[in-house]
Amino acid sequence: MELKQWLSTLSAELETSDVAMDEDAVRTLLDLARDSAHEVERIAAPLTTYLVGIAVGRGAALTEAAATATALLLSRGAAD
């Protein structure tokens, strides 16, 4: 199954079709997953995106929540 089809199918099943999973959102989440996997450890990627998703569910904008997480990752990396 290709990515777009998977996301559409999953979104319908989870009843989240009202949430935009456009190319910008996908890129933001993939970048966040990459950064957290490299700056923390590999398993941080899904857990970080999950927490950002919760923040979005509570009203935060995806780009802002992801930027907050990325800034924290980068400041943490500089401190190590």
The tally of beta strands, per DSSP, is: 0
What is the first-to-last residue Cα distance? 40 Å
Q: Which range does the strand content fall in?
A: under 5%
Overall body shape = globular
**Multimeric state of these chains?**
single chain
Describe the structure.
8% of the residues are buried. The longest helix is centred in the last third of the chain and has 18 residues. The chain is mainly alpha-helical. It has a domain of 26 residues. The model has no long low-confidence stretch (mean pLDDT 92). The chain is 75% helix and 0% strand. Helix 2 packs across helix 3. The chain is built from four helices and no strands.
Helices and strands, with pairings:
Layout: H1 3-13, H2 23-39, H3 44-57, H4 62-79
Helix pairs in contact: 2-3, 2-4, 3-4
Main traits of this protein?
mainly alpha, 80 residues, 4 helices
Could you give a short description of this structure?
The chain has 80 residues and is mostly helical. The protein has helices at 3-13, 23-39, 44-57, 62-79.
